[in-house]
Amino acid sequence: MLTTILLALLAGFSGGNGLPYFVAGSTGDGRNPAPFGDSAVTNVLIGCGMFLVAAVCWHFAHTAAHPLAGYAAGAVGVLAVGLIHARTWRHNPWPWRRTS
């Protein structure tokens, strides 16, 4: 059950973290905190990569064996990354970059 919780938590965190990258890239926004350069294509690729990590973690979490623990841990992972993003993005996290 501990493996289910940890992998589901990581799946939720990765999926929740990948969504803003994917949406920003899909809408043409190239700003991102990744070390791979600023471009919309980079954002889409990072988002897809995070979705892939989330899918693999969810697959190996075996949530069917412990559905309540698995889904709760996944929800906590999404909530955690959402709160981190809300706090981080409240202000410009890169003061050396211009905002438009």
UniProtKB/TrEMBL annotation:
<protein>
    <recommendedName>
        <fullName>DUF998 domain-containing protein</fullName>
    </recommendedName>
</protein>
<feature type="transmembrane region" description="Helical">
    <location>
        <begin position="42"/>
        <end position="61"/>
    </location>
</feature>
<keyword id="KW-1133">Transmembrane helix</keyword>
<keyword id="KW-0812">Transmembrane</keyword>
<keyword id="KW-0472">Membrane</keyword>
<feature type="transmembrane region" description="Helical">
    <location>
        <begin position="68"/>
        <end position="86"/>
    </location>
</feature>
